[in-house]
Amino acid sequence: MNKHSIIHRPTDNYAYACANGSVNIMIQTQKGDCESIKLIHGDPYDWSNKEWKNVKTPMRKTGTDQFYDYWHVVIKPPYRRLRYGFELNDGRKSIYFGEGGFSDEKPKVTDFYFAIPFVHASDAFQPPSWVKDTVWYQIFPERFANGNLENDPKGTLKWGSREPKPDNFFGGDLQGVIDHISYLKELGITGIYFTPIFKAYSNHKYDTIDYLEIDPQFGDKETLKQLVKVCHDNGIKVMLDAVFNHSGFYFPQFQDVVEKGQASEYKDWFHIHEFPLSFEPKPNYDTFAFTPYMPKLNTQNEEVRNYLLNVGRYWVEEFDIDGWRLDVANEVDHEFWRDFHRVVKGIKPDLYILGEIWHDAMPWLRGDQFDAVMNYPFTRNILDLFAKETIDCQHFVENMTAVIHKYPSPVNANAFNLVGSHDTPRVLNECAGDKRKVRQILTFLLTFIGTPCIYYGDEIGMDGGGDPGCRKCMIWDETEQDRQLFEHVQKLIALRKEQPLLANEGTLSFLPVKSNSNCFAFMKEKEDKKILVVFNLSKQAESFQFPALFNRQTPIDLWTGNKLHDKQIQLEAKGFSILEFSN
Ligand code: ARE
Ligand code: CA
């Protein structure tokens, strides 16, 4: 057995407690190295005749990536305390692994074992229960719909008449969203993520001037109240974007520093390296990236902290919003986010907190900060396989398995999955215009675990490159919309609602990919019901053989409603299938 590649620590994705008191343990071992693993566990104080009482529970292999097998088990320690270790068997002999290292004999002292001293519900990761069933829709307000010509900024261009630029305006606003609520309802989405709506200079509004005002180009507080009400009346949650890493250049507090320099009472609100301020070639104060227009806020400063926490509180308390998306969340200190969590959840316990983090985000997902992060590692894998074709099915399944095993499963169930945003090229462009690929990608997005988000316009086949190309005006002329694609997305959302296994019920596993196969499948199962989602990456039609485990079950094709009588299914080139198996 290769001891070097046996990995476990009693924390994070490897060991976490749920609010119901159960504990989830995961271990990873070299691919193919272990035949079986058992968890040895017991209460640390439970002894009789000077012997520690413990039991063995078999672990289940939940996935394999390029290098590792992953094993899981869930147990519920009766007294909420736990000592545990692993019995690993390679088919010939067993070895024992605990905090004390490796042993050929089963150690008798509890100190050898890993410890979970006590399971506290308050320490568990507990996102709001509504989140995992939500289908999000992302709106960039300047470009979704213009519902009020009177608030249009000077120089507003005719809707959709030009390519989007970093500095042009088309007049989109909050009234526009209210006016099109029936469109969103028809599509079936249940949550909207708005990029920033507070008073700011640019068209994207990430350079805030006033955190406590709606940008007049988008409407006023009354319009937001109405919007929230209309959304709630239609079963749609509302999430706003909080830009707390930095302010805008024209934020009055920063302007004060620009004017008064060292004498400004706000000089400690930012991270100024030296006075006087300079802006070129790089600013001499901390910023978002290197843009002088976005001075970084000093969240170590108590005044700043209180100011921002009040902003967090204000929009929840006064406007009843349901979520905060936190911009550049990874560059703000953890202590601030812990305070933020306490404040906003103190007002509305089922408020959702989504951090914008593009990389491994475990430190923010331990229950004391965020409920989810924007799952860009998911995006990357999907685009590499379906759109860019730079990896094959085998590689994709391995990558996805690795991504999933980086987090506890409740984190995965609530992950904010996306295939594009206002920061990335549109999915249609990534697919070089191939709508079959787009359909596959949206199918994967809406049937996998996590909570899917659709970027406005992707559902009607809009195109656009990276920022600012991906920020075109929404197309409202139905003859210009891809209505077939719209119906595809609509049908997927409806199916996801009908079949909880397509959302976050049950357990997920990938089927082993046959060598050189252009098809892959994942399965969700609960009790005796299974749903299989299959994709054909090939440019030709291919048949996909059901594994032996399905032999006695007659599948129903959930997409067409047909009963299948074969032990295989024929998939179109770049096609997919969603199948239900039950006894
Ligand atoms: C403007 C121009 C861009 C130019 C950029 C360079 O439009 O063409 O590339 O300046 O300075 C907002 C606006 C942008 C604007 C930007 C700066 O929406 O249009 O860009 O402000 O003025 C990283 C961060 C991540 C950030 C992305 C953009 O980690 O937090 O970069 N995303 C948020 C918002 C943006 C917003 C800002 C932050 C600033 O969602 O819309 O931009 O408030 C990798 C890395 C990621 C990196 C990602 C993209 O994969 O892992 O860390 O994200 O690439 O670069
Ligand atoms: Ca307008």
Give a description of the structure:
There is one protein chain. By secondary structure, the protein is of the alpha/beta class. It has 4 domains: 3-123, Immunoglobulins (Immunoglobulin-like, Sandwich), CATH 2.60.40; 131-245 and 297-498, Alpha-Beta Barrel (TIM Barrel); 248-296, Alpha-Beta Complex (Oligo-1,6-glucosidase, domain 2); 507-582, Immunoglobulin-like (Sandwich). The protein has 12 helices and 29 strands. The strands form 7 sheets. The chain has an 8-stranded parallel β-barrel. Strands 3, 6, 9, 10, 11 and 12 form a 6-stranded antiparallel β-sheet that branches. A 5-stranded antiparallel β-sheet has the order 23-24-25-29-27. Strand 15 (198-200) and strand 16 form a beta hairpin. Helix 5 packs parallel to helix 6 (334-347), helix 7 packs antiparallel against helix 8 and helix 11 packs parallel to helix 12. The longest helix is centred in the middle third of the chain and has 18 residues, at 302-319. The mean pLDDT is 97. Bound molecules: acarbose derived pentasaccharide and calcium ion. Calcium ion (CA) binds at residues 146, 148-149, 151-152, 171, 173. Calcium ion binds at residues 146, 148-149, 151-152, 171, 173. Keywords: Glycosidase, Hydrolase.
